[in-house]
Amino acid sequence: MSEPLPLAPAPASVVQVGQPASGKYTGCIPRVDWHGLSGAFARSALWKRLHHKRWHYVGLGNAQCFVGLAMVDVGWTNTAFVYVFDRQSRTLLVDATQDGLPGLTAQLSDRPLEGATSWFRFAGMDLHLENTAPNTLAVRARVGSKLRLDAELTLPQGSGCLTAIGPIGDGGCAHATVKSSALETRGTLEAAGRSITLDDAWASFDYSNGLLARTTAWRWASAHSPTVGFNLQQGYFGTQENVLWLDGKPWPLGAARFDFDPLLPLKPWHIHTEDGLLDLQFSPEGARQESKNLLVAASYYIQPIGTFHGTVRAHAGAAPVAVEQLLGVTEDHRSKW
After folding, report:
1. Could you tell me which CATH number the domain at 13-212 has?
2. Could you tell me which residues come within 8 angstroms of residue 178 by beta carbon, excluding any fewer than 6 positions away?
3. What are the two backbone dihedrals, phi and then psi, of residue 36, each rounded to the nearest 5 degrees?
4. Where are the domains of the chain?
5. What SS3 state is found at 222?
6. What is the mean pLDDT of residues 225-252?
7. How many CB atoms lie within 10 A of CB 231?
8. What are the pLDDT digits (tens) for 278-302?
9. Diameter of the chain by CA atoms?
10. Which of 123, 128, 288, 335 makes an SS bond possible with 299, Cβ 3.0 to 4.6 Å?
């Protein structure tokens, strides 16, 4: 059986002839700009303001810890979080979240990587992500005296990022996302009085930018090493962002299925794709979770941290590749925003 065709390079724009430039692509789109949508995607400026959602997420970890941080602009307000999970004690050393003030406390870049600068600053929390050199993302986080993070994430040349673009449902919504494979990490972390070097850590970033529905839900899994990594989603974006990386090369995956007990999310998960290319068990070590109900908005979020094991294949004719003790996360998320 022949190999599937390689992914095409990312387009120059997310909009082509008035429509989302639908597809899975390799590489990073330079900028996400939804101007120019027409036909079924034409909406008022107010609608776009209320439905435009953007976030920059970074996850990084090693044998000692896992760090997750995100800055989110939901159009009418903004928010951010950062946490540090100690893998030895299986506890959260730091778990900080902060809502901001619309238009004042956050800036989310329209550029996923090249020229990107995203930040959140409010009430003692300072998160900053910036493209400081070619293929380099600098990540800084401060939370009072609780946390100090300084790291540089390095993308290899021809990074092998996934860019996914497409419509969502039939309500004029559209989305674009850029996911990285494993990123070499250098830096230091001080959390709850402990100092941890990150020079042996591996990281990934997730940039997402779209015109999303008022109610949005997804399940997600992400794990990365230099030899094998993957990104999976079941929910609002369908199969668009499902991808496997082997030695840095991206391979498309089909629809993902997440078998777990939502009431007992720290029990083992079974995650697989309908094309038979990925079949993994996930063993949680702990989780970061949060629920909010702000009357006009609400969210439920849990992100277990743990390890994956099982097998993956690049395509139907390829030999299976064993996955053992691969550090990553899963997520169950529902938002009314």
Report:
1. 2.40.370.10
2. 28, 29, 112, 113, 161, 162, 163, 164, 205, 206, 207, 208
3. 100, -10
4. 13-212, 214-337
5. strand
6. 96
7. 26
8. 999 999 999 999 988 776 778 899 9
9. 58
10. 335
**pLDDT band at residue 2 using 50, 70 and 90 as cut-offs:** low
> How far is residue 104's CA from residue 120's CA, in Å, rounded to a whole number?
9
Reply yes or no on whether the pLDDT at 161 is more than 90: yes
pLDDT tens column, 168-183: 987 889 999 999 999 9
User: Can you tell me the distance from the alpha carbon of 295 to that of 300, in angstroms, rounded to the nearest whole number?
Assistant: 14
The one-letter code for the residue type at 77 is T
Q: Under a CB-based contact definition with an 8 Å cutoff, are residues 5 and 229 in contact?
A: no
What is the model's pTM?
0.96
DSSP H helices, the chain, are 45-51
Residues shown for the chain: 337
- Residue 294 CB contacts under 8 Å (≥ 6 apart), including other chains: none
What integer best gives the mean pLDDT of the chain?
95
The predicted model gives 299-327 an average pLDDT of 97
Which uninterrupted H or E stretch holds 92? strand 91-99
DSSP letter for 51, please.
Answer: H
47 token code pair: 């609608």
Q: Using CA atoms, how far apart are residues 289 and 266, in angstroms rounded to an integer?
A: 12
pLDDT confidence bin for 337, thresholds 50/70/90:
confident
Buried b (16+ CB within 10 A) or exposed e, 54-75: bbbbbbbbbebbbbbbbbbbbb
Does residue 276 sit in helix, strand or coil?
coil
How far is it, in rounded angstroms, from Cα 327 to Cα 32? 30
Instruction: Give me 159's structure tokens.
Output: 């990074």
pLDDT in tens, 119-140: 999 999 999 999 999 899 999 9
